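Working notes for the structural subgroup meeting. M.R. asked for a predicted model of this chain before we commit to crystallization trials. I am recording the input and output together here so anyone reviewing the notebook later can reproduce the run.

Input as submitted:
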Amino acid sequence: MDIYHSIHTITLQRKIPLEEVSSYRSLLYGLSDRYGTGSYRKSENEYYFYMYAPQGVMISLRAARNCGFIKLTINLNSLLYMEIQRVALFSPCRDYMRTLDCNLRDILRDAQLGTPETFTFARVDFSVNAKTPDPLAYIALAHKGGVPNGFKQTYPRFDNKKRNRLIRYAYSYDLTYSIEEYAISLYSKADQLRDDYSAQLTDYQQAQGILRLEAKYGAAMLQKHFGITDLSYSPELLYRFLQESSCILCKAMQDCFPAGTYYSLAAVQEQLAQAGKSVQRERLGTWIAQTSRMSSACKARRALCAELSGSQYAALMVYQRTSGINPVTIGRAWKRKALPSLQSVFGFAE
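Returned structure, recorded in token form:
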């Protein structure tokens, strides 16, 4: 399976005057009746329409205090083929870009919603698929890595009975950045499809062994990363986002997942014994042992590094990376001595 860094979903948004919300609602309900598709009223002021969902485009309409918003949530690969694509990601090439853009214009023309250029990018989900024999093993290891500084768990409550949708924590690892519009998800695609009642047998078969990483950028994060203020849709800007997807996903990997091969605790001890005595080796050994006890590499690192100076901390991080040893260890019950790092699984250099 080829690894290419791409975009799974984009959200385009347009602001409209508050007095026009009702006319757009009537227009969209008319389209829904014409196509015989359903709609969903999330609240008194927010509606979702699915007439173009089979072609990869969902439309939502929301009334805020002083204005309204029309949003398009677009699965790029589904829009390219004009049919649902649940597993494969959009291949970023110029010919596909032209077809994608033409299909989007046709849908907006049919929906009487104007041209794509009247919309701006509100969110982009940068994504990559990787094939691995055991995706759930990597989910478990990601959880043992803990929550990095500046992030929080997207789904922190395990016992919230009011949740409408069951969150399967063993199938995914989800983080949200505390300040900016930035979220990260790592999940098993086949297990995620279990909650998709419209998924077909071929989808499950195609998704077996696929681990997906997503870095979700909101408008503010897009503006910051790309150094732009105008997020108006254009095929050129979308292509620029696609070209930068590898860099953005690599940043997400560095932000949230320690580098290095995952070893069993016994195998780590063998590796460290061969490394020769040094202060950094002792500190790395302490970090690994504390990670094993605390089930969180982030908590263990914070506890260890609280007593270190800035230069000592930096030296330890360099030593850990160059050693190729991940501070997260494989459990005894797994009957494995080692697993490749997430970085190598997703095609990133370490």
